């Protein structure tokens, strides 16, 4: 199985999550051929140079070859590169497994939170994700809340 891991890759937090997720996927699914853009020094060694066309071509080629897209959609907003990768991959009609680990998903049935939101829209204690991107994920995939769930879902797809 070929898979593509999409996430931001410029902050220490993103790189840490990418390393952790890649390590867990590779340990649980030894036969996985996992493309992690941050591991591609030809386009992501920031001491070197790669132009936008080289970056687009490398990532698009890997997306086209992949059986599944694993996309981290955490953060203040979905990373713009991840959103683009989801859009491109959705056109292939292949499965997408997304990770949204934001703790603001908790307490969705808390009546006080809902009442506060209804009374004052600025009291939104919930998370928002772009609904177009969420819809693209849901057309052929699922949104998980833990790394363990992502690994289990991808493993199941590989059977």
From TrEMBL:
Coiled coil: none annotated. InterPro entries: 2'-dNMP_N-hydrolase (IPR051239), Nucleoside_deoxyribTrfase (IPR007710). Pfam families: Nuc_deoxyrib_tr (PF05014). It comes from the Bacteria. This is Nucleoside 2-deoxyribosyltransferase.
């Amino acid at each position: 199985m070929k898979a593509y891991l999409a996430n931001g890759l410029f902050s220490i937090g993103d790189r840490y999550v990418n390393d952790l997720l890649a390590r867990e996927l590779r340990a649980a699914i030894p036969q996985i051929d996992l493309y992690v853009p941050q591991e591609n020094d030809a386009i992501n060694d920031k001491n070197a140079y790669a132009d936008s066309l080289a970056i687009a071509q490398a990532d698009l080629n890997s997306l086209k070859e992949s059986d599944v897209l694993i996309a981290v959609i955490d953060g203040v907003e979905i990373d713009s590169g991840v959103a683009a990768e989801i859009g491109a991959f959705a056109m292939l009609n292949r499965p997408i497994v997304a990770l949204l680990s934001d703790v603001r998903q908790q307490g969705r049935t808390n009546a006080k939170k809902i009442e506060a939101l209804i009374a004052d829209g600025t009291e939104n204690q919930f998370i928002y994700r772009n609904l177009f991107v969420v819809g693209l994920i849901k057309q052929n995939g699922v949104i998980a809340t833990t790394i363990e769930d992502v690994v289990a879902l991808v493993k199941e797809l590989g059977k």
